[in-house]
Amino acid sequence: MKTLFSKFAALIITLFLVSALAFFAFALIPADPATTMLGSEATPEAVAALRAQLGLDRPLPVRYFEWLKGFLRGDLGESYLYRMEVGQMLSGKLAVSALLTILSFLLTVALSIPLGVLAGSVRNRYFDAAAVGLNQLVMSVPPFFLGILACYGLGIVLKWFTPGAYVSPEKDFWGCVRYLIFPALSIAIPRSAMAVKLLRGSIRDQLGQDYVRTARSRGASETSILLRQVLRNALLPVITFLAVSLAEIMTMSILIEQVFSIPGVGQLLLSSVSNRDYPVVLAIVMLLAAWIVTIHFLADLLTRLADPRVRLG
Amino acid sequence: MLQVEHLSVRFPGGAVPAVEDVTFSLDRGEILGLVGESGSGKSVTAQCLAGLLLPDAEVTGVIRLEGQELTGASPTQLRAVRGKEVAMVFQEPMTSLNPVLRVERQVEEALRVHTRLNGRQRRDKALAAMAEAELPEPAALGRRYPHQLSGGQLQRAMIAAALVSEPKYLLCDEITTALDVTVQAQILDLLSRLSRERNMGVLFISHDLRLVKKLCHRALVMRGGRIVETGAVEELFQAPREAYTRRLLDAIPTRDNKLR
Amino acid sequence: MKKQILALFLAVGVLAGLLGGCREATPQNSTASSTNAPSSQAPQKAEIAVGIAQDLDDSLDPYQMTAAGTREVMFNVFEGLIKPDSQGNFVPAVAASYTVSTDGCTYTFPLREGVTFHNGKECTFEDVLYSFQTCAAVTVNSSVAAALSNVADIREENGGVVITLTAPDPDFLSMAASVYIVPKDYDGQATAPVGTGPFRFVSRSIQENVILERFDGYYGAKPALERVTYRIFSDGNALFTALNSGALDLVAHLTVDQVESLTNGYQILEGTMNLVQAMYLNHAKAPFDNELVRQALCYAVDVDAMLALTADGHGAKVGSSMYPAFGKYFDSALADRYPHDVEKAKALLAQAGYPDGFSFTLTVPSNYAPHVDTATVIVEQLKEVGVEAKLELVEWETWLSEVYAGRNFEATLVGFDASTLTASAMLARWVTGDGKNMIGYTNPDYDAAYAAARDPAHTEEEQTAYYRQCLEILSDTAANVYLQDLADFVAINPALTGYAFYPLYVMDMSTLSFQ
Q1: What's the pLDDT score for residue C192?
Q2: Which residues of C touch A114 (CB under 8 A)?
């Protein structure tokens, strides 16, 4: 209980620090929203007027605390560029990014566990060498590169899907899922390769444990030993990895959204950073930070639940 | 009767055989000691009997169970024997149990493999076996995980898991080594009683001659993979013929002599 | 063949087993033909998808919008009393016609009968008055604001609008065209704009799309297209991939490289971007304060060779701060004022005191590839005369604040376009002390010629002559190293006709139709 409380406190402090860091670091980047918005027709007077209108002429700490005050009340502020409530802008984007993240995650799990068990249990030297080699190769492919290959190979040449023909989930949920399968695979495949490597090693390790010998001495078959005894132990480190993957998938999807033209949080973050649209950037940074911190917290909790040694002390 | 004739085991890359030309037999109701230094081939012999050696080990000789030849039997036939006719208990109870499964689930493992009993029936039998292995409150202990039990309790649970399918022969590989002296004594008493009551043959492997002397009827002394001396325990300890056996006897600490 | 092998590798090696079912799941619009035909080749409804490279990421309020991309789209939604056509003439819109008094101070716009806003409200004098007043008060376009500050009075007369100026303004029509007419007492313009144009705004999904639909209550000729979806691709490669896959019917502002690597049956139209690409030199920094040095650079640069290298020879040489579509002012002779001449460049440099050349930093925004390509070639060409230019790429936003607003640069390579259809939109910025005069150009002759061009006492012909004089001065003094107006390629569904290039940065959807 005490650890839970202190972990929660650490979570809050982390988020607070992230917000301050993001806010002040942002102020250091050259360019500000006013010059960006007015473009090459700007005059110094117009820039000054716009800065005043946006409140950018006030000192940084004042602006930070004002933002913080709003944030704590649940008010994310208004986008400088779009002149819209940030919360309203994010709600639609969030659904898309969440869908992409969940799909990527499910695919990662669906690919990595069977393949990992296979790679961990088959005792054939040639199969093993081939599997490890292929795995190593796939693991090192960056998702965005895989995404570009998928757009070209599966999209333009094979026409399994039309790159750029994204439909929003509100309009056609299954159509959206069908489109998102491809970016999700681009994320899931290298990610699964990492999980397969981990699971394979973990299974190999567990197969050498004494309890496996015990199970054999009871006459249990190899398959039953693998699935009933070894897998649960072997999955322990993989569970943590997969849970943390949820956080990493979210960050990876930023690039993947770009490749597949998916209008999610990632795209909004990138454009808001270059437009210096602070309210939007801060909201997304906080969101991502909260997501990552929460995922690590949950991963920790999940490991505890899955391992009786940790759970029961 | 469990018979071993001219058994030799050689591991790939091993310069000398781990076990060479070993011949002995174990009767039901008998407790046979197997002593020797570590590396003398005791454990390999036991694992060979239990069919636990890796497939790349080169095994020659004959093992018979109640006259039926096990060497050369198919893996499926061997699995039917393992845990059913011949059960085994290992040295490290902590690592020999699966850390993420409840104790009762592991005690009933042999029943899952060898019988068609349902969950409740298996559980009843498992609790009975645990009671027979003198575990206090088997129902409560069975719900726990291995790390929540003491070493002695774990070893009793391992014995219960071996007993649950009522095997004819029990192979005990250094099962008391990790336990403290008082628990050791209790385990020996338990084995002695079980062997008597169930007419079960016990192969008791230990490097500790004191325990062998206390428990066994007969003993084999192994060195370098061979049996160097064999005989009734009393004879062996009174008048060891081999210098090696004498050395083993001399190695018993005097403190233990006092305890006697 | 290579494509097939690559695709096969991908399909078999990685995904085939998993995605066996997805073949049936292909979106309906990818037809069975062997090429990726544009999506609406056999349209049931007159709908098109237009790919755009930038989100409409600002306020959609006509007086607040700043981004060129937003203006390009909203041109279809809003109209002024008058509006420009593709030839650069002003045609009546909300007004039925217009007349100018002989003293140039009074403009009369009789209002057209039956003009309604997209919200169903009828357009009245009150709305026009409100629009002019609001625009004057809040517009972010400084030249429009300046022009409106010259308005003395707006009154209703015989169902028309009469606008009186305190002093004549030759550019007033153009400015009036920029004052979009909006309904009075409607405060949702920022996110749900309402105007009188041929298309009405339906929705905007941030970074996803903007949808316009035909406005059936439009007074003029109804557009043939019922619905236009602008799909947003903030990544240039993704836009091009979508175009190549046939998901789009129309994409403008393509480069020659992109057009050449398009593999399917789009028709390609070529126009110009209506901007002046130049290497802009900071006159506040030595040695660019020296006219001889600037002229030397002009001689050192070989624009034809640059065009051949970067765009297969497409693009138009400019020679001064005016682009060819502005025929009234554009002087093609200036484009050849500085022929490529290495010896002359070296001689001028020696005369200026730099016989061994010099080095400087050329800051270029990285977001627009053609500028970067041009700069790369220029850097090489300058080496021939001993001038070392160090290419520095910066983010567009950094360029705006550091280079443009901060004037903290030596030389930069960008393009300037016109925000309104006036010569002053291109030329006002080089007047001494102007807020937009980023290069710090100071030339009394220029200032005098510009003032004369703006002087209402002169006839229109005289004004035009003064503007042309301004352009000559810029050229003679080598204010900048003038390069080109970039070629603008449009890829369009072959079934579509009626695309028109404007001398402004707009894209008119009302003239498009399926054959």
Answers
A1: 93
A2: none
Report how far residue C68's alpha carbon sits from residue B248's, in angstroms, rounded to the nearest whole number. Answer: 96
Q: Higher confidence at residue B78 or residue A198?
A: A198
Q: Which residues of A touch C58 (CB under 8 A)?
A: 37, 81-83
- Cβ contacts (< 8 Å) between A220 and chain B: which residues? 79, 83, 109, 112-113
Strands, sheet with C199-205, edge to edge from the N-terminal-most edge strand: C199-205, C209-214, C227-232, C47-52, C250-254, C487-492, C267-272
Contact with chain A for residue C510, Cβ under 8 A: no
- The whole-number pLDDT of residue A164 equals 78
Mean pLDDT of C333-343: 94
Residue pair C234/C86 in contact (Cβ under 8 Å)? The answer is: no
β-strand C151-157 against C199-205: which pairing, if any? unpaired
SS3 B221: strand
pLDDT for B214 equals 87
pLDDT of residue B37: 82
| Contacting subunits of B (3+ beta carbon pairs below 8 A) | A
- pLDDT score, position C37: 54
- ipTM given for this complex: 0.84
Question: What is chain A's mean pLDDT, rounded?
Answer: 86
Check whether B258 has a pLDDT greater than 50. Answer: no
- Say if residues C291 and C478 touch (Cβ distance below 8 Å): yes
| Residue numbers in A near B88 (CB within 8 A) | 217
d(CA A57, CA C6): 55
Report, as an integer, the average pLDDT of C484-490: 94
Cβ count within 10 A of residue A162 = 24
User: Is there a cis peptide before residue C287, judged by omega within 30 degrees of 0?
Assistant: yes
Cα-Cα-Cα-Cα torsion B68, B73, B78, B80, nearest 10 degrees, comes to: -70
Within 10 angstroms of residue B46's Cβ, the number of other Cβ atoms is 19
Q: According to the model, what pLDDT value does residue A30 have?
A: 74
pLDDT value of position C26: 33
Q: Closest Cα of chain A to C400: distance in Å?
A: 6
* pLDDT for C440 beyond 90: yes
In this structure, are strands B169-173 and B2-10 parallel, antiparallel, or unpaired?
Answer: unpaired
Q: Do A218 and B82 touch (CB under 8 A)?
A: yes
Q: Which of A37, A161, A163 sits opposite C66 (nearest CB)?
A: A37
* End-to-end CA, chain A: 13
Residue B252 confidence (pLDDT) above 80: no
Distance CA C311, CA A143 (A): 33
A229: contact with B, CB 8 A cutoff: yes
Q: Is the peptide bond before C365 cis (omega within 30 degrees of 0)?
A: no
Per DSSP bridges, beta strands B19-26 and B2-10 are antiparallel
Residues B229-239 have a mean pLDDT of 83
Which chain C residue lies closest to A177 (C-alpha atoms)?
Answer: C25
d(CA A292, CA A247): 5
How far away is chain A from the Cα of B15, in angstroms, using its nearest Cα? 24
Selecting from A35, A37, A164 the residue whose C-beta is nearest the C-beta of C241 gives A164
Q: Do A261 and C27 touch (CB under 8 A)?
A: no
Global pTM value? 0.77
- Most A-contacting residue of B56, B81, B98 (CB-CB within 10 A), to test interface: B98
**Whether residue C142 has pLDDT greater than 70:** yes
Residue B34, token pair as written in the block: 């197997």
Residue of C nearest to A84 (CA): C191
Low-confidence ranges of chain A (pLDDT < 70): 1-2, 313
Q: What integer pLDDT is reported at residue A199 of this predicted model?
A: 93
Q: Which of residues 145-204 of C touch A (CB under 8 A)?
A: 190-191
pLDDT tens per residue, range C210-234: 999 999 999 999 999 999 999 998 7
Q: Which domains does chain C have, with CATH numbers?
A: 39-53+197-272+493-514 (3.40.190.10), 78-177 (3.90.76.10), 274-485 (3.10.105.10)
